[in-house]
């Protein structure tokens, strides 16, 4: 092994302060341990969340951009220009499925805004029913799951009550999703609910095996005892998607995260959720794909 984990993490922490060229050189070295951990087994694959880089692309343009950049998996975020919504007719859903079947690009799933924290029973039920509609949509379009949100600990409501409510709602939609072959992916998101110990508590209630976690690469992942500790709290419930931001932006320790995923032999999708606004989206996507390859050896 060329580099031990301590050296690997130390290099990753230093990347944010370096110019891009130096950063890429360091990441090319740091990939050695991660690639060694994977060996020749199937491993994680890089793709795109349409939030935000794909939000203004229609579906043909979006698929073409992913083909050109090598980001061959797409999570379609709701309310974007692609227009894939529960209101689509049966024929329109079949057309979405056909477009992906005719492309090397995979429809990974749907990024919804469904959330389950609201203390109003009517609002809670509306979000549950909307999630079920997204499940049917992805089943018809050829996706494999739906991303949902917890989405906060409500002021004036005991935290345990909100956690239990969210967990029970997730069990209901997870059972429904299982009937349609659609994984429920709970994004680590929201005020209070983005803390990993809270997500662990939610998942203790949401014990249906089809209720999984979508790691979201938040700053709160580093709270308390740090990334490895927080990752270990929920690693057994990881679903098929992990969200990341630009791999060369900010100070999040992506190299360390990818190393932790490598230890698990994780075989899901690492989905880019770009936050900047590059003039040439395809070039920016291609650059991120190259960076992912350097970090993972893939």
What does this entry look like structurally?
The protein is an alpha/beta fold and 298 residues long. It has a single domain (5-296), classed as Divalent-metal-dependent TIM barrel enzymes (TIM Barrel), CATH 3.20.20. It contains ten helices and eight strands. The protein has helices spanning 5-14, 20-38, 59-69, 90-101, 121-141, 159-179, 196-205, 227-234, 254-263, 281-296; strands at 45-49, 73-77, 106-115, 145-149, 183-187, 211-215, 238-244, 269-272. It has an eight-stranded parallel beta barrel, surrounded by four helices. Helix 5 runs parallel beside helix 6 (159-179). The two termini are 18 Å apart. The relative contact order is 0.17.
Summarize the structure.
By secondary structure, the protein is of the alpha/beta class. It has helices at residues 5-14, 20-38, 59-69, 90-101, 121-141, 159-179, 196-205, 227-234, 254-263, 281-296; strands spanning 45-49, 73-77, 106-115, 145-149, 183-187, 211-215, 238-244, 269-272. The chain has one domain (5-296): Divalent-metal-dependent TIM barrel enzymes (TIM Barrel, Alpha-Beta Barrel), CATH 3.20.20.150.
Rg over CA atoms: 19 Å
Helix content estimate:
40-55%
Whole-number mean pLDDT: 90
Give me the CATH fold name. Answer: TIM Barrel
Q: Main β-sheet: number of strands, strand sense, barrel status?
A: 8 strands, parallel, barrel
Unreliable stretches: 1-32
Q: CATH H level: which superfamily?
A: Divalent-metal-dependent TIM barrel enzymes
Shape call: globular
The number of helical runs is 10
CATH class: Alpha Beta
Order of helices and strands: HHEHEHEHEHEHEHEHEH
CATH architecture title: Alpha-Beta Barrel
- Domain count, please report it: 1
Category from helices, strands and their pairing = alpha/beta
The order of strands across the largest sheet is 1-2-3-4-5-6-7-8
Terminus-to-terminus distance = 18 Å
What's the count of strands? 8
